[in-house]
Amino acid sequence: xxxxxxxxxxxxxxxxxxxxxxxxxxxxxxxxxxxxxxxxxxxxxxxxxxxxxxxxxxxxxxxxxxxxxxxxxxxxxxxxxxxxxxxxxxxxxxxxxxxxxxxxxxxxxxxxxxxxxxxxxxxxxxxxxxxxxxxxxxxxxxxxxxxxxxxxxxxxxxxxxxxxxxxxxxxxxxxxxxxxxxxxxxxxxxxxxxxxxxxxxxxxxxxxxxxxxxxxxxxxxxxxxxxxxxxxxxxxxxxxxxxxxxxxxxxxxxxxxxxxxxxxxxxxxxxxxxxxxxxxxxxxxxxxxxxxxxxxxxxxxxxxxxxxxxxxxxxxxxxxxxxxxxxxxxxxxxxxxxxxxxxxxxxxxxxxxxxxxxxxxxxxxxxxxxxxxxxxxxxxxxxxxxxxxxxxxxxxxxxxxxxxxxxxxxxxxxxxxxxxxxxxxxx
Amino acid sequence: xxxxxxxxxxxxxxxxxxxxxxxxxxxxxxxxxxxxxxxxxxxxxxxxxxxxxxxxxxxxxxxxxxxxxxxxxxxxxxxxxxxxxxxxxxxxxxxxxxxxxxxxxxxxxxxxxxxxxxxxxxxxxxxxxxxxxxxxxxxxxxxxxxxxxxxxxxxxxxxxxxxxxxxxxxxxxxxxxxxxxxxxxxxxxxxxxxxxxxxxxxxxxxxxxxxxxxxxxxxxxxxxxxxxxxxxxxxxxxxxxxxxxxxxxxxxxxxxxxxxxxxxxxxxxxxxxxxxxxxxxxxxxxxxxxxxxxxxxxxxxxxxxxxxxxxxxxxxxxxxxxxxxxxxxxxxxxxxxxxxxxxxxxxxxxxxxxxxxxxxxxxxxxxxxxxxxxxxxxxxxxxxxxxxxxxxxxxxxxxxxxxxxxxxxxxxxxxxxxxxxxxxxxx
Lengths: 427, 427
Known about the structure:
Two copies of one chain form a homodimer. Chain A is an alpha/beta fold and about 425 residues long. The first copy, chain A, has three domains: about 1-40 and about 60-110 and about 225-295, FAD/NAD(P)-binding domain (3-Layer(bba) Sandwich); about 125-220, FAD/NAD(P)-binding domain; about 310-425, FAD/NAD-linked reductase, C-terminal dimerisation domain (Enolase-like, domain 1, 2-Layer Sandwich). Helix content of chain A is about 30%, strand content about 25%. Chain A has helices at about 10-20, 45-50, 65-70, 130-145, 155-165, 185-200, 230-235, 280-295, 325-330, 375-390, 395-400, 415-425; strands at about 1-5, 25-30, 75, 80-85, 90, 95-100, 100-105, 110, 125, 145-150, 170-175, 200-205, 215-220, 225, 255-260, 265, 275, 310, 315-320, 335-340, 350-360, 365-375. A five-stranded parallel sheet of chain A has the order 3-2-1-7-15. The radius of gyration of chain A is 23 Å and the shape is globular. Chain A starts with a strand and ends with a helix. The interface between A and B is large, with 62 and 62 residues.
């Protein structure tokens, strides 16, 4: 039995590793079009910022490691240009053909710059790949740009803004819509906009980039799309989200062909609908399920609550589930509360934490939340995510037994204060 | 209608406030035997340490605040010495009698020193009350003790040890049993013992205090018992735990009489059995339910997962649910994993976090967990607590959508690494 995996990042390597654990006899080959295997692309903004000194620091495991420790062949610089499923073959850019019994597609996502005039100029960069980050770093060192324009106020746009601001540039973020972080949430947008202003980063909302703006340096942190061309040409179905459609076992419509990671959609546990939300953690979980199933197991990945977190100039912003506006769009009778409370007693230097919680008025079910503050954001957003995964109501959430001691929290955690107000609204 | 509450700390004042919100016409009086109303007793170790400069900093609200803002009469220095339920009266130490229609008992807990010879000496202290903490602080300033003995390695014992070590004392903790923090967990005990050794705090296990040990200063942080005498004399039933037995609505066996807080037992959501685990957060939630029900609502408090957290000399220790040993005692086929992983990438100064997860082999259900580290303990223990409250299995826990970005975490959170190993053991 031969398993072929296309792509050697989180999803592809998790898939290969999961398959190996289940079947020691499987012949496993991973094809990677770039020279770089298994690196943490989420660290690229911190390479630009200077905190990560060398991109090698981001490499988790080498191809040699996979060969030696897991008996997995990882072939870097090997681009798959076509899949011939009737022949069970992938075709490489060299013209070579490689047979498979099972195939896992993890082709990721990319910036689609085709509709952006001027994107091919030398001062325009993306920040998604090793090569792009290296070129940007060199540009910063050699050209010393003074002004930077960033297209997109998603998490990468915010991280890029911080990285460049730290380098002393004047930074302007251009965001197509009137909101940030794809939440359609005016409250969140206001909080983030105010914070960016304090950090002297300009945020222009409702500012669609019809072309590349005038600046010394332009970073494209929008127009991110699932990389589905190869799969689509092979007849793999694409879902409504534009990403590859998969079952909870990561099966595509083609027999013995799986897809996972940023090229595929997944199930949103709150809306119950397919969603495309490309993130490394999800990619790893999807990859594991794909690999296990390709090796003959029956393993499902139930989906995501849609949790994300970003830090920009000291402020942590955690999001999960649906915002009130998103929930209404999904047909929920959504209602929200927003509170601000200190995370700890004053004698332990408590700082304010903002919490937003959204629930469905009809069922009381919690639908989403946001936590924003200098500290204590990750733990709290994860508590909300866990509650969403188990379909808790606001009333149940209010009785959670959260840890309390003065060095860590106040008696009434901001989450519980928020939940209490929400439960009152629902009565 | 007249509501009388005995005790003006977390449970009593939460009860009075919840009753007021529901019924603006209720006549509410709270009797408090000490001069101190609504202060955070959990902050007392930090008063001894010196971080809290004055005990007034710990006061949340004054009696005047309750009178003015909530129309609640709080009578400090007013000890209730008897309850005459047939007459619906409480009797004060002054001989005065006060009528009630509804009564809420929140008499808290206390150290029972009757079986400890020598406990009445002037160098022996508890650290549970305002008065005790004040006396201890004066003793430290005037006598300048060099050596301190602490009886009990529960969370108060550990906090006291840190507070006195910070003041430069040589500290020895005497613990009756062979474990710490009441978990019967050798792994936890070893981690805590090693840490205390590094902090130059002596921990003597299996060291029952038959009498007060020889030292310049002795702190009693054991022998904590529910304060049930008053209630028991009035005919209120006591449960197996030794605390007052209450329904999920906080009703005692006497009609119109409720109990809440450290004097009462509650339901353990994992074992499904009554438990006595006195903590301020639980007291507040129980108080709210008692107050709401006394005012005519129907509100339940489902119980606790048994979450606690303590910091000792920089190390955070979070616990929730049952330890493996406790779970076995409760009849579960318990199995545990213990892992250590960095909380963040190295370029964000990741530090090791230890995670222990316990599940039931028969059902896969998660039963408990521990998180130990310099950082990131509170958020993670709260995630486990949330999972326990919704009876998640280890397999479900493994797919949780936890927030990831390099400033906050690694791609695979230590919780997910632990859950994965646990799920493998259960297959």
